């Protein structure tokens, strides 16, 4: 054992410089969540329109029904295609300086969280994420605009590994 090894921090000497993608199963989870939203929205709006058509039946209600159906169709399309877009246009990278997360297809956003700003880190799993083996890494920072940075769509194992790596690099003893 080298005498200097006791003085160097216990940090992986090769930081992850390559951008990492989300887990592909996040597409399925995103679609299921989107379709649940569409079904609930349709269940709330369509009965009122159908009732209006039955009792009123004039051209205004027909127009409203067509517009609502078009709107629901657009939302259903976004519920199906949105998770694929999110998967294709989201990446993350952890290096010696901090965490970098890029998101967005049209409005691109790059979030950089330096290690010095990290307060604590959580791994959160909802019911759908648990079912598909996914998790969300939540990084709480010392700041106002991005005091809570979420990285959704990671495999549970990857989220735990990232959490442990950030804890080691930050030098936190308990998170």
Order of helices and strands: EHHEEEEHEEH
- Measured as a percent range, the helix fraction is 40-55%
CATH class of the largest domain: Mainly Beta
Most strands sheet? 4 strands, antiparallel
Strand percentage: 15-25%
Structural description of this entry:
It is a single chain. The chain is α+β, with helices and mostly antiparallel strands and 175 residues long. The chain has 2 domains: 28-86; 91-170, PH-domain like, CATH 2.30.29.30. It is built from 4 helices and 7 strands. It has helices spanning 25-55, 59-88, 127-132, 156-170; strands spanning 20-21, 91-94, 98-103, 109-114, 118-124, 134-141, 148-155. Strands 1-2-3-4 form a 4-stranded antiparallel β-sheet. A 3-stranded antiparallel β-sheet has the order 5-6-7. A hairpin with a 5-residue loop joins strand 3 (98-103) and strand 4 (109-114). Helix 1 (25-55) packs antiparallel against helix 2 (59-88). Mean pLDDT is 84; it is low at 1-15.
């Amino acid at each position: 054992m080298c005498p200097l090894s006791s003085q160097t921090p216990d940090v992986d000497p090769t930081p992850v410089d390559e951008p990492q993608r989300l887990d592909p199963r996040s597409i399925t989870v995103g679609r299921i969540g989107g379709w649940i939203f569409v079904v609930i929205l349709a269940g709330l709006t369509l009965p009122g329109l159908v009732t209006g058509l039955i009792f009123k039946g004039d051209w205004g209600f027909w127009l409203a029904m067509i517009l609502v159906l078009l709107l629901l169709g657009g939302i259903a399309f976004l519920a199906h295609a949105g998770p694929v877009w999110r998967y294709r246009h989201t990446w993350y990278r952890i290096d010696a300086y901090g965490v970098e997360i890029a998101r967005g297809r049209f409005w691109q956003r790059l979030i950089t969280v330096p290690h010095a700003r990290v307060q604590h880190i959580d791994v959160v799993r909802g019911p759908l994420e648990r079912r598909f083996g996914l998790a969300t890494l939540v990084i709480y920072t010392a700041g106002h605009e991005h005091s809570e940075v979420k990285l959704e769509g990671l495999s549970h194992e990857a989220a735990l590994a990232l959490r442990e790596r950030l804890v080691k690099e930050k030098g936190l003893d308990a998170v």
